[in-house]
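S1.2 Input.
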Amino acid sequence: MLVKTYGSAVFGIEATTIIIEVSVSQGFAFFLVGLPDNAVRESQQRIESALRSNNMKMPGRKVVINMAPADIKKEGSAYDLPLAIGILAADEQLNPDKIGDYIIMGELSLDGSVVPIKGTLPIAIQARKEGFKGMIVPKQNAREAAVVNKLDVYGVSDISEVIDFFEGRSTLEPTVVDTRAEFYNAVAQTDLDFADVKGQENVKRALEIAAAGAHNAIMVGPPGAGKTMMAKRMPGILPPLTLHEALETTKIHSVVGKLDKDTSLMTLRPFRSPHHTISDVALVGGGAFPQPGEISLAHNGLLFLDELPEFQRTVLEVLRQPIEDRRITISRAKFTVD
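S1.3 Output.
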């Protein structure tokens, strides 16, 4: 029997829907194709153990799984849950009728519990855009995904909950977040207050002008003068995030996995202070699987380069284009991502 389930791959800060086709037929073998990396290939052992722990079993027949589109690299363990549900449905251990209505993502533990994943918010935005009825994600990621309205988000802690949901034996309560109320209640609440700075009137005036106009500023002075202390308090006097900026900032931090547990929306402007030994790739972003760097993580907030002269010249040079163009384009032989 052939069954399709749906997952999602985050590429840069945008998500792409992945169609997982599972076919169970005569024979005895397991094939996983569609450009999966080692973490995805290793899912067979995690799925097998998780199913056994929940009184289910892997098919004793030939299983062929294709992850389309096949030209996009699939990486990470977040595909465990959609793969497992697809295998059960193709083996007729699970009713496949409602499976195609949902994006399913989650990493499985050996006992069948579902582990949190990265990039839930961009996945939810893409799911709504493509008209999916809802999303099934780990419980810890549910509030983050529920920021997106007009999409039913179900948080699960165990694969048995997903099986019972599709079999109709139980119902799952969708996670509901009043995005606007939550945002406006928490916006601009910071622990570090600019009022803590005593004296330094000229410097405070300069920083207030920089904050008001989104200007760059350079602070020069002896150690202990309060440069770092004042910089850390700068986000407190920046204009509060708008809801659109908060969604944009949360999306970037979600991809990197920097959101706090059970956080639905970032309400404070980010403050990033990388060490002076940072590489240019870590600052600007990129890597084998392109990830946002410190510049992107500081988007809508403040990037503070402490001990500026200690940074490598190449690291400082990569700041030029993002400051001028307000965007970062990573170009490699196999991909280009903004």
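S1.4 Remarks. The longest strand covers residues 14-25.
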